[in-house]
Amino acid sequence: MSDKPTASITLADNSQCIEFTTGCPSVLHCLENQKIAVAYQCREGYCGACRATLVTGNVEYNEEPLAFVREGEILLCCCKPNGHISINLK
């Protein structure tokens, strides 16, 4: 796998921008690599503990999550950004 940046993630609360690379399996993994503390439990889209608000942009899911996801929310553990995204961590 390559570590080529393919997208970016902006944290809306502090404007921190993080490059998402092709080697990252999920947004959660990318944030953890940058030492950003994020709540999570299952890492597979079952529990919803890693729920965040998608401010702008689009994501694609590795697999459709089983946890309920409201309009404007994403599960960080099982999605990847499709281009630039801005999120609010909960």
UniProtKB/TrEMBL annotation:
The keyword Methyltransferase does not apply. GO terms for molecular function: 2 iron, 2 sulfur cluster binding. Residues 7-90 form the 2Fe-2S ferredoxin-type domain. SUPFAM superfamilies: 2Fe-2S ferredoxin-like. Keywords: Ubiquinone. The keyword Ribonucleoprotein does not apply. InterPro entries: 2Fe-2S_ferredoxin-like_sf, 2Fe-2S_ferredoxin-type, 2Fe2S_fd_BS, Beta-grasp_dom_sf. Gene3D superfamilies: 3.10.20.30. NCBIfam families: PRK10713.1 (NF007985). This is 2Fe-2S ferredoxin-type domain-containing protein.
